[in-house]
Amino acid sequence: MRKIIVGIVILALTFLTSNIYAQKTIKAQKRLIGGKIEKIEFTDYIENTPDSKEFNKKFKVLEFWATWCKPCLEAVPHLNELKSAFNDEDDLVFLSVTYEAPEKTQKVLERIKFETIVVSDQTKKIHNDLNIEYKGMMILPRTVLIDNSNKIIWYGTPTELSAEIIRKFLKNEKI
């Protein structure tokens, strides 16, 4: 009985600690709003590779995901809908960013249709620059809006992102 109680206490403390740490990570992300990211580059283009890989002068919706992240995969249809709603916006690009190797993503991509450009950041440079991975902890899923001057405008979750937020983003209005 004592082992069970000790196990429950350890489990509860682990959960509490990770939750507190996640909140600190989200605060660290929010502090980056208004700052600029130097350059956006990826190690691999996995799916829906564009003709031009130059995104720095475009408005960018970056969706950070992983194959093991169930909420990330559940958010894909929502992001696909948003991308379809803004298909006519030439200055807007939707990027689904994973840190995993292309080979690792193939089974998921066979099961789930991504309408977005799927890219890999195996070096985790963008993940680190945007505090998606912060002090060794990965916070997923995360959505980041970066404007056409590479200024970080918004952080949130995929379910928080709406067409209205994107419209304001494209007009440089306060979100």
TrEMBL record:
Coiled coil: none annotated. GO terms for molecular function: isomerase activity; oxidoreductase activity. Keywords: Isomerase. Pfam families: Redoxin (PF08534). Residues 31-175 form the Thioredoxin domain. InterPro entries: Redoxin, Thioredoxin-like_sf, Thioredoxin_domain, Thioredoxin_ResA/DsbE_sf. This is Thiol-disulfide isomerase or thioredoxin. The lineage of its organism: Bacteria, Pseudomonadati, Bacteroidota, Cytophagia, Cytophagales.
